[in-house]
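Onboarding guide, step 5: your first structure request.
Type a short instruction followed by the sequence, for example:

Predict the 3D structure of this protein.
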Amino acid sequence: MKLNSEITFNPITPLYMDKNVRNVFSCILNQRFNTSILSGYFKLGDECSNFDLPGIGRLSTKKLVKELLDFLVKGNKKNPDLVDIAKKFWDRFSFCGNESSLVAVPIELKNIFANYSKKIEKVTDLLLIKDLLKPEFLPNGTIVDFGSGRNKLGKAIIDFADLNNVNIKNVIGTDINDFGSTIKDKRHTFVQQIDTTIPIENNTIDLVIIKWAFHHMNNEMLKNQIGEIARILSDNGRIVVIEALMGIKSELYDGFKNEKENEETWPKNGKWFKERDELTKNYLKLDLVQQKSVLAMEDYYGNWLEQRFIWMPLPFNYMSPKEISKQFSLKGFQEEYNYRRVFGMAPIIHWGPPTVRLVYRNQQF
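The system replies with structure tokens like these:
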């Protein structure tokens, strides 16, 4: 794969061309290192707001963020090659070393972030969809987790279903990587997805979950993928799309206000609540071009710089809910608005973009 052929623009450029983009992304990055959320909401350890970094010295989180962004902006204006930029970034900021998937996490925070990464599917991903795990949504007990990674969400779904008397017969994880499944439960399986084709039989799936995957596809791939999803869904099946939040404030803010009343996603007792609330509001004040720039930088930072996933395609095909719904309507689906949730920068989404959830169903039902 020629990675650069998948990239529609250099996400670093807006950091020095638009101060509003830089300010919002700086806040997102600062929240990414905000261990008060991890130690408080996720109960993973003591707060650590200052740390010593090899070759840099003792820095606060905010100073670290400025150091990271200054490096990206000042050191790479003349060279737009994102792979080369990533390699230089690893040389300078790979605090945990090559042996860790958390390479760009300050080494003093390695344990707390590693503990979070072990819990993310159960504590974060499950909360995004668990209200949909009910018998009327799952008459055949079949679910596909599209882009499942290492399939930990599938295990969390099965565990939740067992505790809540929900019949689950099969949770199928799919991914472009051959992760397989380490889950020792006959109800969980994995199939590798070589392209947009999904090797699953027609009309067999009740619920398809797609988390933060559509923006990694170009328009042709997206069209083909929706067609495949429509093929495998049962007549009464539903599609759950969890995607980066895009759109104008007037269309999304009421949904965001409603979500803030949910203490699972927006706990009232955390001092991070106000910061995340203000960050989401400031993000929604940006126009769509600025939002896309922030999301692209967040994606590039998280996947390529922090975790070294330079195999991850980055076409940055971010769309508003209206644009996503248009794509699904071409295949006969319409959104069920009562299941839409505007999470924004909810504390549960510590690694990830401002987020929205959309649910689609065949129009004939």
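Each response can be followed by summary notes, for example: Residues 68 and 245 are 24 Å apart (CA to CA).
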